[in-house]
Amino acid sequence: MDLRQMRYFLALAQELHFGRAAERLHMSQPPLTRQIRALEEQLGTLLFLRTPKGVELTEAGQALLEEVPNVLLLAERAQERTRLAGQGMEGRLEVGLFTSSVLDVIPRILAGFHAERPQVRIGLHTMSKVQQIDALLERRIAIGFNRLVPETPGITVETVLQQPVVVGLHDSHPLCAREEITLRDLEDQPMILYPNLPIAGLAQEVDGAFRREGRRLQVVQEVEDVLTCIALVSAGFGLCITIAPAANLGLPNVVFRPLRSRWLQSVELQCIYRSDDRSALLRAFLAHVRASAA
Which residues are in the HTH lysR-type domain (predicted)? Predict the structure, then answer.
């Protein structure tokens, strides 16, 4: 029994008249009669009793009537969900984030996409750079956001935007009087670096910039995340070089000044995804990311 036969049966069961059912189905009566007869032969039972005024449902026909509307509804729902999924309007998008990514643009991107496509469920996962790459390759996430992502076979790295580099310092520090700060100003200052991870990140970029300018970098602490770093600055433990969105943490006693350096001006916020992923949902999300960044 196919969906077409179910629709024929439902029309006749509701109209209880071949002529009216055929008119409702936009077909002539003889083909409808043949289809109902074929359905009864297929099921091995009568579904309708013919009467002078039309037809009546048999007990078997009544049992079928209790099921067919639900089956047709499920079929229509499946067709609609399939259509929406094919357009990237429905489904689940797994997104990898890093700790400080929630401080600025990414929450706005996610909120905007959710507003455009409320039927899409978004799963968020806080992961390190290495964990995001592994999760992409293992197909546990569809896209990740990070910075300074190394080249990896099968992974596309796309720039979302450039984020300015700033210096974070305690509000009692003499350098707060400067409108901008140079690496020369930071020479021999107690510096806090992050992230303290084996893969290259902001800490390595800071170290490289000091080396290129021939300045001494005095590291008093290496930490794993921006929150710990800024908290230590707030406590007067030292200074840090970070990304402008860190100011959104709003920790007390911390001020931020632009860093003026030939070698370290901004850091790219990047999105990463599998190069062979052609899903409509990912493509729709990437289009939203690009439009938001523009």
Answer: 1-58
- CATH code of the domain in which 189 resides: 3.40.190.10
- 192: nearest Cα among 224, 145, 238: 238
Query: In angstroms, what is the C-alpha Rg of the chain?
Result: 32
210-257: per-residue pLDDT in tens? Answer: 999 999 999 999 998 899 999 999 999 999 999 999 999 999 999 999
Q: Is the separation of the CB atoms in 174 and 167 below 8 Å? A: no
Among 147, 178, 188, residue whose Cα is nearest residue 164: 147
Among 186, 179, 164, 278, smallest CA distance to 239 is for 186
Cis amide bond preceding 107, omega within 30: no
Half-sphere exposure of 161 (CA within 13 A, CB side): 17
Summarize pLDDT for 167-184 with one digit per residue, the tens.
999 999 999 999 999 999
Are residues 288 and 150 located together in one domain of the fold? yes
Give 170-176's long-range contacts (Cβ < 8 A, gap of 24+).
170/233, 170/234, 170/236, 170/239, 170/253, 170/254, 170/255, 171/253, 171/254, 171/255, 172/236, 172/253, 173/239, 175/239, 175/257, 176/255, 176/257
208 and 225 belong to one structural domain: yes
Handedness of CA 202, 207, 210, 211 (dihedral sign): negative
Per-residue tokens: 228: 């710990």
